[in-house]
Amino acid sequence: MEIKGLKIKGIEDIRESFKTRQVKYGGYAALLTLAVIAALILVNLIAGQLSPQVDLTYSKLYSLSEQTLQVLETVKTPVRFYGLWRPGEENQEVITVINLYLSKNRNISLELIDPDRNPGFVNRYDKERQGIQRGSLIVEGEKGFKVITPSEMYDYNTSQYGGSSVIAVAIEQRITNALLYAGTGNTPVVYEITGHGESPLSIFGIQNTVERENFSLKSLNLLVAAIPSDASALILNNPQRDLTTAEAEKLLNYLEKGGRLLVMVNHNIRELSGLNEVLASYGLEFIYGIVHETDLRYIAMDPSSEWPDLLDHEITRPLADKTKTPTILAQAMALSFLDTKRRTVDITPLMTTSPGAFLRTNLNEASATKLPSDISGPFILGAAIRDPGWIQNNEPQARIVAIGCGYLLDIAAMGLDANRDLFMNSLTWLEDRPETISVRSKSVFLMPLSMNMIQIIIFGALFIIVIPAGFFISGLVIWLKRRHL
User: Fold this and answer.
1) How far apart are CA 256 and CA 397, in angstroms?
2) For the chain, what is the domain count?
């Protein structure tokens, strides 16, 4: 190119430079970079519209359980949530969970109410005229309403020094149960049997749990009173004395009419003739003694306490997740299926020992090894009974859950969620409320990862040798290719 006799060589050089391999690779890299940036912008725009969320918390704190989703499918009428918060004091953790409900059912709505500016509104829901705490959540449906206080949204562990700490989040559990109540307006009445030295549920902190899950808990002494007509279920927890013949007759008559019974007993009672008379009518009996384990995989603290195998049933299914705290039974008795039982009766074992377990009937013996007088296992430690097994034409169905461990709730009171859940799952199964069986509080604790030596070596080699070596080899290959560019 010439301008007034001058030849400009720079432009030609620029044209030629675009033909070099370095410029070509640089151009490809620039185009690739622009394409990646454009793709990221597009993905962000789409994500902003969809607002996807992934719950990475250990206990799935911000995910609804399958049972809650089943309950939401039944909500066909308007349900209103009223959050009693001052502006700026909203509990975002609670609102996050509520939004999950709103996204699954359009019949549910949320309204935030300032209790200080709307005292008249709050008084409408204060049935006992004791005031409703700020931060509470009101769930109202066509059949009724339920008030969930801030303290009820969490489970606490109180130390001996008076302090307390949050051990579990119970927001979903409380809201789902409130939804059920708001939809039906019914509160089943459960009676705990007294008069035999039983351990009252109140000393284990279970009473509050039972009442929060829509049950009304009362006591009943079978020696002096008949079983009330409103009894949806009876609980016999760790009695120190056996049932009398008259009490056994009352229980049998109650079950014949479709009654429900939860039994948890220990070896404290040598003879269980009264209680076994009731259970024998349905093909089951307790065997006196204490189960001992020989398999280390089943031993919890000592050979007389164990982690049982949980068999498939509505009660145990939610507890079978190996990442959760396991169920522990201490000094458990065994259950036996009788050869003769009614044809209509359906018995399902819930928990079993290892094949190597044995039952010690002579409790004066302290030997850790099996003796000739011991009974060889495996054993059934819990069972569920239905009579009749299949309901036709709304006929009454008797249900019984028998657990050979009177210390089940004692262990639950020590902070073992699985034992508490086993008890509550049994109670809700008796009441035939499968939709709430596994809607339980979600622990904020992490279970430690347990690995044997082989696993430690494998994971150690993976993260210390294999992965770093992979990065080094990849980098070396890329460097060798590019150094000739």
Assistant:
1) 8
2) 3
